[in-house]
Design brief:
Layout: E1 2-7, H1 12-24, E2 28-34, E3 54-58, H2 64-74, E4 78-81, H3 88-93, H4 96-117, E5 127-133, H5 160-179, E6 183-188, E7 191-192, H6 201-210, E8 215-218, E9 224-226, E10 228-229, H7 230-243, E11 249-252, E12 257-259, H8 260-274, E13 284-287, H9 302-308, H10 316-328, H11 331-337, H12 341-350
Parallel strand pairs: 1-2, 1-4, 2-3, 4-5, 5-6, 6-11, 7-10, 8-13
Antiparallel strand pairs: 9-12
Bound molecules: nicotinamide-adenine-dinucleotide (NAD) and thymidine-5'-diphosphate.
């Protein structure tokens, strides 16, 4: 029986990963460590909170004592580090916490794992997997679609968020080179699916549209993101954990580049067709652009396909409907996460954005 030590498992991708693993393997144990920041939500895990294969610990990955105790108590085979501050807009307003959690937190976990795992004969079958992002590669030109992020593309982060993720990747790589730590790094493109906090594009636009609130599109709306259904990302991470040689980096993506305005139009069309026929494109409002806004992301996933046989399984047209169906039928989940602090967050981020003509 394998024990997975998952950090950030109450967030969007982490909770999808926990559910994926518990649904895939009957004989498995998950130790789920999450600080429960604004982005962490135990409601995401409601279906497994009574499952004895799932152990939840509320703790901060920067807390070395708590991490060492948990690793010592449960002796995991794998550590999968999802825990992070993950929103670019927040990183522009307050970069410090990104440095703390994403860099110092990762380094703390690496240290604790090294101390717990290293013996005179090496690290056995343990593995540390860092869940990274395509944003560490910076921004691509929009006029040449043949240029994609490859694993050997130089790191060139441009936002405080991506700088912190790139720094964490460098620490992970350094622990592999220096101490022989068995690590992998995965760099995935934008995920979409159930349980995504409505500070991110798709659930934010859905929530606004349902409530007849303007849809704030940054700049000209022609920035491009490469969208992957979250379940496909979770499968890829598990494959890398179980099959990949240590030390390797894998890009994960599904060749699905879309402009932001296209995504927003899809959301409007869904809400118009399924919820409220009065919702239409007149809700779109182009607003002041994000500072340093990366123009285009595009992943080349050749390596993970060739070496591990991974392929995305959910076409965007299917995944987006599944996702929006989920939000439509989980209104209580949306209500809970948008009550309280969310309102003041929204005001802080959007009130002073100028509307572009
Ligand atoms: P999220 O913000 O939804 O969830 C982050 C989780 O980490 C939350 O549950 C939060 O409570 C927890 N957390 C934050 N600080 C912590 C700390 N100090 N100690 C313990 N737990 C802490 O993020 P997400 O979108 O699920 O992203 C998960 C990971 O995947 C991140 O590392 C992110 O960089 C990476 N990633 C995300 C995307 C995407 O599109 N969302 C794409 C590629 C990579
Ligand atoms: P986001 O979901 O924040 O992900 P990331 O910045 O990590 O790619 O944003 C996706 C794209 O949508 C990005 O180009 C910024 C844009 N965006 C808007 O235009 N308006 C919004 O209100 C938000 C949250 C994002």
């Amino acid at each position: 029986m394998k024990t997975y030590f998952v950090t950030g498992g109450a967030g969007f991708i982490g909770s999808n990963f926990v559910l994926h693993i518990l649904n895939t393997y009957p004989d498995v144990r998950i130790v789920n460590v999450d600080k429960l920041t604004y982005a962490g939500n135990l409601e995401n895990l409601a279906s497994v909170l009574d499952d004895e294969r799932h152990i939840f610990i509320q703790a901060d990955i920067c807390d070395r004592t708590a991490m060492a105790q948990a690793i010592d108590a449960y002796k995991p085979d794998f550590v999968v580090n999802f825990a992070a501050e993950s929103h670019v807009d927040r990183s522009i307003v307050d970069p410090g916490i990104f440095c703390q959690t994403n860099v110092a937190g990762t380094q703390t976990l690496l240290d604790v794992c090294r101390d717990a795992w290293k013996t005179s004969s090496g690290y056995g079958d343990h593995k540390f997997l860092q869940v990274s992002t395509d944003e560490v590669y910076g921004s691509l030109p929009e006029d040449d679609k043949s240029v994609l992020f490859r694993e050997d593309t130089p790191l060139a982060p441009r936002s405080p968020y991506s700088a912190s993720k790139a720094s964490a990747d460098l620490f992970v790589k350094a622990y592999h080179e220096t101490y022989g730590m068995p690590v992998n790094i995965t760099r995935c493109s934008n995920n979409y699916g159930p349980f995504q906090f409505p500070e991110k594009l798709i659930p934010l636009m859905f929530h606004n549209a349902c409530n007849h609130v303007k849809l704030p599109v940054y700049g000209d709306g022609m920035n491009i993101r490469d969208w992957l259904y979250v379940e496909d990302h979770c499968r890829a991470i598990d494959l890398v954990l179980n099959e990949a040689p240590v030390g390797e980096v894998y890009n994960i993506g599904g060749h699905n580049e879309r402009t932001n305005i296209h995504i927003v139009e899809q959301v409007i069309q869904y809400v118009h067709n399924n919820i409220d026929t009065t919702v239409d494109a007149s809700l779109i409002e182009h607003v002041t652009d994000r500072l340093g806004h990366d123009r285009r992301y595009g992943i080349d996933p050749t390596k993970i396909g060739r070496d591990l046989g991974w392929q995305p399984e959910t076409p965007f047209e299917v995944g987006i409907i599944k996702t929006l169906d989920w939000y439509r039928t989980h209104q209580a989940w949306i209500d809970n996460v948008t009550s309280g602090q969310y309102q003041s967050y929204y005001e802080r981020m959007y009130k002073n954005r100028e509307v572009l003509s």
